[in-house]
Write a structure and sequence with these properties.
The chain is of the alpha+beta class. Helix content is about 20%, strand content about 25%. The protein contains one helix and three strands, in the order ββαβ. The protein has a three-stranded mixed β-sheet with strand order 1-2-3, with helices on one face.
């Protein structure tokens, strides 16, 4: 599991790999999963790591809570 961690709370982005598929979950449902600086940095870090991982064939981007993202 790879995650960008904010010191005061849970990771803003969760990653789970299974059967060649990386699932990235935006993880700030209480704030409607905004594309904050921390979220964008975590996404960039995760996509860079995924690009280097030859075992990953697909990426699913999803979000915790009832809203995908409130945007930037």
């Amino acid at each position: 599991m790879n995650a960008h961690i904010r010191p005061e709370a849970a990771p803003v982005l969760l990653r789970q790999d299974a059967d060649g598929i990386a699932t990235l979950t935006l993880n700030r449902p209480q704030a409607r999963n905004p594309l904050s600086e921390a979220m964008l940095a975590a996404l960039a870090e995760s996509f860079t790591a995924i690009a280097a991982d030859r075992s990953i064939r697909a990426v699913v981007l999803t979000a915790a809570g009832p809203v995908f993202s409130a945007g930037h």
